[in-house]
Amino acid sequence: MTGSVPVVLSESELKSILTLTERFTWNVARPIIASLGLPTGRGREATNEKILESLIDLKSKDRQKFDGIMANVNDLIFGQVVYGEKAIFSLTVDNSVIKTLNDRFSFQWNLMNQPSLLVDSILDDVQLQNAVKNQPELVNYSIQNTQSILVFSSVRELVVREKIPPSALAQY
Q1: Furthest-apart CA pair in the chain: how many Å?
Q2: Is 83 found in the same domain as 20?
Q3: Domain span at residue 134?
Q4: Is 53 a member of any domain?
Q5: Distance between CA atoms of residues 88 and 72, nearest Å
């Protein structure tokens, strides 16, 4: 007698989903879960159960959609680990828009003189004083498979005003 083997999530798939729901703050994780088309419940526990049920069902019925969701989750987790929580995003953008942006940034990057040494990237005091303040500047661009990474840097101008009482000075 032969029977069908029930579909279950692999250990890595389970860890990815639980990382999304447990490691990310709830106010960040919940909209991401909804944007992926996964069900949400009342609170983390109920949401975890609904997500797991939904993914098991999806894995058995539509493997391509399941793989797409898992790829998005893994990309988000990778972004959070590498770049921190400020890099968390879950957007779907038209491919023609992404291609246009990639073409423009690639063109701009290729026109620039890329530094070959770290010393070329660090500004000395004179360069720092003469630099344009508070305007992001492209400092690195790379593309691999379906991901593009743009790194911007800017010189910030900060004015510190502090009142120091005379009693805090060493002479008093």
Answers
A1: 94
A2: yes
A3: 95-153
A4: yes
A5: 12
Q: CA–CA separation, 19 vs 74, rounded Å?
A: 10
- List helix spans (H) across 62-139: 63-83, 95-111, 118-121, 125-130
Mean pLDDT of 61-80: 85
d(CA 130, CA 124) in angstroms, rounded, equals 10
Asked whether the beta carbons of 125 and 117 are under 8 A apart, the reply is no
Q: pLDDT band for position 87 (50/70/90)?
A: low
Do residue 104 and residue 60 come from a single domain? no
Residues 15 and 64 in one domain: yes
Cβ-Cβ contacts under 8 Å for 111 (sequence gap 6 or more): none
The pTM score is 0.49
Please state, for a pLDDT cut of 90, what percent of the chain lies above it.
0
Residue whose C-alpha is closest to residue 137's, from 108, 160, 102:
108
Instruction: Please name which of 54, 81, 83 lies closest in space to residue 70, comparing C-alpha atoms.
Output: 54
Distance CA 138, CA 105 (A): 9
Place of tokens 């944007």: 35
For residue 151, give the DSSP letter: E
